[in-house]
Amino acid sequence: MRDIMIVEDEMMISEDIKITLTKLNYNIVGTCTSGEDAVSMAIVKKPELIIMDILLDGELTGIEAAKKITAKSDIPVIFLTAFTDNQTMKTAIEINAYSFLTKPFNEAELKAAIQISFIKHDVSQKIKISNSKFESLFFGNPEPIVYLDQKYRIVEVNSSFQKTFGYSVSETKHKLIFDLIVPPSKTSEAKELSHITDLKDFQTERQTKDGKIIPVLISSSHIIIDGKLTGTIVTYKDISDLKKVENEKEKLIAELQKALNEVKNLSGLIPICSHCKKVRDDNGYWEQVEDYIARHTDVDFSHGICPDCMRQYYPEMYEKMKKKEKEEREK
Asked: Cα 66 from chain centroid?
């Protein structure tokens, strides 16, 4: 059961409407005879619909009262009038009247007017919710977004688009997207992309107002109504930082590859003398093993004497070393 308020200064008509609405299973939340009372009652009762006579007692007309009410709350209004002159109708239409009933009217006309008003209001509410969601997603999105018409002219851009590409809203309105942010070298590509119904993360370049070329990922979706293209939503993702990281990564890889290429490799079977330990190179020449390894790698050698060789070739020095080690242990 939906709540309806009646504003009518002719008591017989008001009572007749009340009886009819009750019969049609509507709940009457209140009745009044003046525009001033209508404004106050609407605030308190919060009806879902108001049936309002245009000519009322008091200083406020029905139209003036409806203006005050609809300025504060979204309540549909059906106007009752005995006059159908153009000025009256025009004034009522300007405040978005949902329907008109010309006195006298019958039950069927009243029922139809109420049903149409509720349908119109419900559709209007759904559109408002849908628009609110769209605006939230569009204007609140951290990525640059542009809304294009069917001819790819700019209808709207969000703040991120303005910040990324350096254009104000007034500088973008009704401009062809191809003429605004597409570099000349990418014009043909951009026009080909515009024919794709759903585009996802296409990597390319776009141009800012000051001429700077920036790498971007583009995603777009066509808005198609009744089989016809009515617009396109395009999202841009500035990947300048990502490209910078990728370039630094590629540079590092190149430097590592260069370093690896400069490292000399030593592998395979190496002939070595079992007595003097010289190594035979690829040309058949014999050379000291340290010279061979140094020539084929980046290894440098320092020389010393192992304990076995010291005992064999330098026995006196070996004995002194052993004696010193013993004294160190006994301390």
From this structure: 39
Does the domain at 141-241 match CATH 1.10.260.40? Answer given as: no
Query: For strand 3-7 and strand 49-53, is the pairing parallel, antiparallel, or unpaired?
Result: parallel
Q: Kindly report the CA angle at 133 between 132 and 139, in degrees rounded to 5?
A: 85
* Cβ proximity of 1 and 48 under 8 Å: no
Buried b (16+ CB within 10 A) or exposed e, 14-45: bebbbebbeeeebebbbbbbbbbbbbebbeee
Query: Does the predicted model carry a pTM greater than 0.70?
Result: no
Length of the chain: 331
- CATH class belonging to 3-136: alpha beta
H helices within the chain, ranges in order?
Answer: 11-23, 35-45, 62-72, 86-94, 107-139, 159-165, 169-172, 177-180, 187-193, 240-262, 289-296, 307-313, 315-330
**pLDDT tens digits for 35-83?**
999 999 999 999 999 999 988 888 998 989 999 998 888 899 999 887 6
